[in-house]
Amino acid sequence: MGLVVQKYGGSSVADAEGIKRVAKRIVEAKQNGHQVVVVVSAMGDTTDELIELAEQVSPMPAGREFDMLLTAGERISMALLAMAIKNLGHEAQSFTGSQAGVITDSVHNKARIIDVTPGRIRTALDEGNIAIVAGFQGVSQDKKDITTLGRGGSDTTAVALAAALDAEVCEIYTDVDGVFTADPRVVKKARKIDWISFEDMLELASSGSKVLLHRCVEYARRYNIPIHVRSSFSGLQGTWVSNEPRGDRKVEQAIISGVAHDTSEAKITVVGVPDKPGEAAAIFRAIADAEINIDMVVQNVSAASTGLTDISFTLPKTEGRKAIDALEKQKAAIGFESLRYDDQIGKISLVGAGMKTNPGVTASFFEALSNAGVNIELISTSEIRISVVTRADDVNEAVRAVHTAFGLDSDSAEAVVYGGTGR
Fold first, then answer.
1. Distance between CA atoms of residues 134 and 40, nearest Å
2. 177 CB-side CA count, 13 A
3. For 321-334, how does the pLDDT look when each residue is reduced to its tens digit (9 = 90+)?
4. 3 state SS of 309
5. pTM for the full predicted model
6. How far, CA to CA in Å, does 381 sit from each of 54, 176, 207, 337?
7. What is the DSSP string of 215-241?
């Protein structure tokens, strides 16, 4: 049997009972003949509690020390899990991200993995041990400082280790039974997907689906590492994410894979921009220099009488203040009139590779929103995705309406979120 990398989220190891339940599942994989590497997140809400504690001590904690603090959560999980496995009669060794060979750049709080050199992990496996690795963290290549990987960091750690170790599969254990056609906390009749392509999963992840994060899926696609999303609370088969369906099973790709939503973004409108070459470039250069990622961009038609236009774009709410400050500094150089900021928005996205060859998908999408009384503010499309921005208060109703309109509702029992988080 081959090597398997398993990752367990915070809800799976939220307490002592959860850790013991996870330990039994890991030992079972070992007894089935696999070499097992496990990546763990911090217990429950530990990371959020550490962030809150840091903010009480310092309103703007230094990046290096903030990372040093946040990595404590995963170290607690890995040590306790190793103890639980040893209590079941199997040898386990725990490793921090740096000990596991996760090498990153030096950007604190959102570092990116440069390389993985898992020498100590291979040695532990060769000695017959189970290796437990703290997720979400690494060590910078230049200064050798502890770094954290930002949102979705433990998933990314797991896939990166799977690629470096040439694992058969990366199993992501969470508190839902797999990837669903919509967030089961919003759509009770969401249907579990048996298999989904990397391409569709990337679009769902970038559109707000939280079961897998975009960075993790992109890494898996790049190195062709199959991901198996499963629940640590049940024995049900989950969702395979890969280039092709696993084994001999032939799964016909659905026209629509799912509906995703995101309420973590804000919208900035740059009002009164001179409609001439270079103005948009200057706006987005200012945003890029502030190291802010943007999502949707829409430019209005120029008013003939004034020669001015408006440019709107969406970005994470957490970056809103920084973006406004960056643009205000360039106001005189760019020549725009004013800025408008709106953080009461939500994004709804319809995703499916099949929509490329099926006319009428766009019309049905907008009809469903219209019938639900949802007003559209921005629209963005790709070959396999349609996204719209609406009022935040309309998001849940819009998701349910679109999900039903495309026949995605399940006829079976309601989807279960065991831990209450959907992660």
1. 5
2. 15
3. 999 999 999 999 99
4. strand
5. 0.88
6. 40, 29, 12, 29
7. HHHHHHHHHT--EEEEETT-----EEE
